[in-house]
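Anyone able to model this chain together with 2-acetamido-2-deoxy-beta-D-glucopyranose?
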Amino acid sequence: MAKQHSSSSSALHLCSITTLVFLALLITSSGASTQSLSYDYYNSSCPKVEQIIHNVVSQKLLEASTTAAGALRLFFHDCFVEGCDASVLVASNETHKAERDAEINLSLPGDGFDVFFRAKRALELQCPGVVSCADVMAIATRDLVYLVGGPRWEVQKGRRDGLISEASRVAGNIPEVNQTVPQLISLFKSKGLTALDMVALSGGHTIGFAHCKEFMPRIYAYNKTFDIDPTMDQSYAESLRSPCPEKNFDPTVVAFNDVTTPYTFDNAYYQNLQKGLGLLATDQKLYADPQTRSYVSLMAKDQQGFFDHFVSAMIKLGNIGVKTGNDGEIRRDCGFFNA
Ligand code: HEM
Ligand SMILES: *[C@@H]1O[C@H](CO)[C@@H](O)[C@H](O)[C@H]1NC(C)=O
Ligand SMILES: *[C@@H]1O[C@H](CO)[C@@H](O)[C@H](O)[C@H]1NC(C)=O
Ligand SMILES: *[C@@H]1O[C@H](CO)[C@@H](O)[C@H](O)[C@H]1NC(C)=O
Ligand SMILES: *[C@@H]1O[C@H](CO)[C@@H](O)[C@H](O)[C@H]1NC(C)=O
Ligand SMILES: *[C@@H]1O[C@H](CO)[C@@H](O)[C@H](O)[C@H]1NC(C)=O
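re: yes, here you go
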């Protein structure tokens, strides 16, 4: 940018480069989102892909009810770092720290990893080397959301697995609880998602948990004037103090993200925000900020409306940075790049 002002001749030169880059982007993005992903991608190569994944996923959910939330969060993190390419599933090795082990990892949920690994192993028995881990993540997450009460949608397939998984490339791509709504909006915008998409996707917090450290700044020594965040229901805040004591708290203890219906995918999360019952500071701020408040109200009063917006945002999320054609690979084991 700064260079464009250095001299008029170089500005002209940069201008033509910019046009070329722009054209290249147009070609790439239309190729990625419309040509290559399709509903019938595995029709001949693995016709039972959806059924095989569904069987594994429903069995896993019976064993561990936390699976749905774990998978949804992992899918979100995967798509926000390097695009939806299953890079989050790759393990670190002795010399190399992978994406899933970034400091900001925030204890990514083991059951989420497990359900994707299991679904992929089941697929390898029937159609070896065919279905990408990235598609497994998209399909399994869709199934889990539906199985815990949420909407269902058709998943477009044909994503390929990424060849990069770097812990150092995570920071800045994943939202954090201390961010402001304008910061969150700009992060989501950088991934092609609108503020409405962001509010709808945050409805993912209608299931699952957060560890004490994520909300403790709200319930102890909040600021100079208030001990407890004044936007938080005061008795709700007090009820969180005993599982999360100020000193020597247990780092493994968690609280429900949706305190009213923690295991059901519904719009109670938004109704909670209207009552000061949001757990994370960022959740509650969606209702405080004028840029997002009306969206929260919309979702709170209309569950079908929430579901419709959630589905459209999940489809956009699932298209972020997808690799197709000869990009990437079809990993044999989701935890490792092919040798
Ligand atoms: C808007 C910004 C967001 C922030 C700041 C945020 C932050 C967090 C934090 C701090 C946790 C708790 C992690 C832990 O302590 O283990 C969490 C959990 C979770 N997040 Fe988000 N998140 C955001 C958006 C999203 C989106 C867009 C989705 C998916 C569509 C999502 C899905 C989840 C789920 C399902 C859990 C529960 C995970 C579990 O129980 O294992 N979040 N989030
Ligand atoms: C692919 O399979 C689905 C489900 O069996 C079917 O509805 C669809 O028509 C098939 N598409 C093609 C191109 O064969
Ligand atoms: C560790 O992983 C990196 C890439 O993720 C790879 O380049 C390197 O060869 C691996 N090292 C070992 C010892 O396997
Ligand atoms: C990241 O998450 C994985 C899976 O839960 C865990 O095994 C690993 O220890 C975590 N890494 C860090 C640095 O928190
Ligand atoms: C949020 O917290 C992280 C560490 O947890 C810190 O690196 C970052 O600077 C903080 N961001 C803001 C906006 O305060
Ligand atoms: C404390 O937080 C409240 C609510 O966020 C805010 O209105 C107030 O100005 C803050 N006070 C100080 C001293 O920072």
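Residues 140 and 210 are 22 Å apart (CA to CA).
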